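Let's do one together. I've listed all components of the complex below, 639 residues spread over two lines.
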Amino acid sequence: MRAVKLIEGGVSVLDRNDVDTDQIIPKQFLKRVERTGFGEFLFYDWAKQPGWDLPVNPILATGRNFGCGSSREHAPWALEDYGFEAVIAPSFADIFFSNCTKIGLLPVVLDEDEVRAVMEAGTASIDLAAQRVSWDGGEATFEIDPEVQRRLLEGLDDIGVTLQQQDAIDRYEAERERQGPVTTALR
Amino acid sequence: MPKTLFDKIWETHEVADGILYIDLHLVHEVTSPQAFESLRLAGREIRRPDRTLATADHNVPTDGSTAAAQIRDQLSRVQVETLERNCEEFGVPIYSIGSRRQGIVHVIGPEMGITQPGMTIVCGDSHTSTHGAFGALAFGIGTSEVEHVLATQTMQQRKPKSMLIRYEGELGYGVTAKDLILATIGQIGVAGGVGHVIEYAGPAIEGLSMEGRMTVCNMTIEAGGRAGMIAPDDTTFEWVEGREAAPDPLPLEDWRALSTDEGASYDTEVVVVASDVSPQVTWGTTPGMVVGVTSAVPEPAGEADERALEYMALEPGTPISEIHLDRVFIGSCTNSRIGDLREAAELVKGRRVASSVNAMVVPGSQQVKAEAEAEGLDEVFRAAGFDWRSAGCSMCLGMNPDIAAPGERVASTSNRNFEGRQGRGARSHLVSPKMAAAAAIEGHFVDIREWE
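Okay, and this is what the predicted structure of the assembly comes out as:
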C-alpha cells in the first residue's frame, strides 16, 4: 500500500445520503477476478443520467452513511482507480470505511456543515498527520484511529504488521479451548 | 462486572490489542479471487485451511447446472473455476456447483452445524451477520481482510460499540421475523446501527424459530450494524443438535453461559414495540423506506425520497395494496430456508399465481432443496405456477441469469431494494415469504392477516 500523507486539490461533489456500494460499482462488474480497472465503471448507472457531473479530482465530498450495503471492496477500488485519494463525509458505513483504509483511500469524517463548506470551496487540503482539513475560508480537524493513521502514513502492509504478533497468535492457538468445527474433517 | 454476550465472545478471542482470532472463515467466489492472488504473489500460505470453508453461490445459475463448465456467462464461469482452483491449491474444503452441500454461504454454514454459539465467524460478504442468530460474533469483511484472515486467522478490529434492541410484546398473527426487522430498520434508520454490534432480545425474539432469528440478524447490516446477535437458548441447541458438524454432546453449560449477564450495560439501547408491527412492504430504494401493508406510499420527506419515488414509479398516497407486481422472488440468504419455504407453500397450496406475475422459488441450498422436495413443497409451488429453481443467490443481486428486466416490479424476500440491485431499472419491494406468496397469487400486495 502506498503511503498517504498530504492530499490536496479539487473536490468533486456527490450531494446524496446513504449512497450504497451497489451504486458505486454495480454487480455486473464484480465478476472480474482482478483488482484493477474498475474506475471506468464507477457509478455506472447514475453516470448515464442527465446532469451527472463527477470530475476526476483527488477529493470526493459526499453525504451521510456513504458506502452502505454490500461489503464489496470493489467500491473503494473503483473510487481509487477513478482518481480519488480521499472521501470526506459526515459518516461512513463500517465495512466500507475499513475497506478504504486497507487500500490507502483516506476516509475523513467531518461535521455536516464542514462537509458542506468543503463542497462549496471546491478545493481542499487534507493533512493526515495533523488530522486536519483546510479549505479557502476554513479548516477542521478529524478523528482517526491512531493505529490506522500510522499504517496509512507509513504505507504498511497490514498482514506484515499482524504477523509481527505471530508468537501471540501461536500461543493463543496452543492455549485456548477449541471453538467450533474442523472444516477439513467433514466427509 | 456483568458482561454482554458480545463482551464474552470478544474477550475470549482477543489475541492482542485490536487483533481478534477467527474460528471460522467462509469464502465465496466473488470477494476472494484477489485475496488468493495476493497471497500467491507474496508467497504466503493459508494459516488454517481447517477453519476455512468455501462454496459458490453468487454466480451460480439456478437452472440445475452441476459443474462450473456449464455456466454460459464466461466471466461467471471463470470466477467459479478460479475459486475451485484456488481452494485446491491452498487446501481449502469447497462445496462448489454439483456438490450436495452447495448453497448460499449463509445457509450452508448453519445447516451443516458449522455455525455454533460462541464462535467468531467472518466472510467477505455483508450478510455474514446472519450467523449471529446462533450467539456467534459474525462480521462481513472486504477482500483485503479476507486475505488477512487467510494469512493470519485473525482480523484487525477495534471493539465496536454495543447496542441492545429490546422488543416489547409478541408478534401478532401473520407477522414474521422479516416484518420485525424491516420495521426495526424503519424505526432506527439505515445508519441507525453504524459502529455497533447489535444484540436483539425480548419475548418476540425468543419466540422466533432459528430461521426467523437468522432473518433478523441477516438484515442487521441494512440498519448499518457491524454484527447482529441473539443469545443462544433451547431453540438454538435443538436446531444445532445432530447436524453433521455439531459437537456431540453439545457443550450446553458453556453455551448457556454466553448469555448477557443481568445488569450488563450497552452503549446504546433501543426499544421496539413488537406487538405494534404489521406486515411490512418497502416502497423506496433503501430498506428503511418501509411501511405497513395497510398504509399508503408516503409523501416524500426530502430529495432522497423524491428520487426514490421517481425510480420506483410510485405516487404518494397510493395504497400499498394497489401496487401491482410483475415478478415475485422467494429466496436469498434472508429467506430461503426450509421454514421460509414451508410458510410460503402453506399459503399457495391449491391456488394459482396471477397470470400477470412471473414467480420463482429458489431454495437457499441443495439440502434445503432436497428437504423441500422430500416434503412435496416443490409440487405445491409448481402446481401453483411457481418456477422451482436450484440453489444460489439468484435474483437477490442478479450476478447470475436470474435478473429482473428494466421497469419490472418485484415482490422480493431478499434484503436490498437498492436501485438496480435485482436488475438495471428493476423496482424491488422487500417483504416476508408469506407476503410474497400472497402477492404472487393476487398480483398485488395483500394484508395476509385478512387474506383468505
